[in-house]
Amino acid sequence: MSLPEPAVELTPRQAAAAIEAVLLGGLDPEGCPARLGVPVPAGELLVMPAATERYAGVKVAGVAPANPGRGLPRITGSYLLLDGATLVPLALLDGMALTTLRTPAVTALALDRLAAPDAAHLVLFGAGPQAYGHLAALAAVRPLRRVTVVARRPVPELLAFAASLGLAAEQGGPDAVAGADLVVCCTTAHEPLFDGALVADHAAVAAVGSHSLTGREVDTVLVQRSACYTEARAVARREAGDLVLGGADWASVANLAELVTGTAAVPTDRPRFFKSVGMAWEDLAVAAAVHERAAAGA
Length: 298
Prior knowledge:
Helices cover 32% and strands 23% of the residues. It is α/β, with parallel strands linked by helices and 298 residues long. The chain has 2 domains: 12-99 and 281-295, ornithine cyclodeaminase, domain 1; 104-279, 3-Layer(aba) Sandwich (Rossmann fold), CATH 3.40.50. α4 links the parallel β7 and β8.
């Protein structure tokens, strides 16, 4: 039996709402299944299962660092959505498109709560698919007016995309974080991208580019200065090099569910730092929303 393959066509706001709804419904990220990572000759193979009463699903993703040099995406994969009660397969989704949508949605959900109300200037590190996704997602939930892109090469296409969202766009250097209200890092960097001492106390920062204990996009200075948040402390201890290498005080790190439900404090006298490694329940939330919209003919 062939499975339907619905296009991943949720808006960034709808994807964030799907993730928020799961958390408000009582899902505890701390108890969700762990990601399985298997080294393979081309890079890494990831298997990410998740389940609720209504749905189950698994993403099989490949991380192939050499692919961009071949004109191929660095992240590949597929997502299999199943009925929660019977485990009968319901749909097969493009895993890369799902990841490109859900990761910015998670960031947008977190930063919408961590950013200052009038946050208008985003400094964005990276120029790949996640950079585009994060621009669209943050523009959908925050009153952005300006973006500064920090990348290793000229990025006229990304600047044009930002302009199409109504943003004043320019390319700059790492020191641009000194004037930022929001900073988002979505790169493959293994070393800190900027000096954390430059970040203003009112700013909110997110790092999404790594799920490795040996890599990080922000430095120890930022982690030590900031109120820290992550999707789940248990997973972050295994995968969030930014927090582990930065010496995070785990007793004070809040998770995303606590942030969404309002039980986590959000101070305004120091930066707020959200570290995302990507979790399977997020893929399931978005995949289920895509399936339901397709089934309803939306």
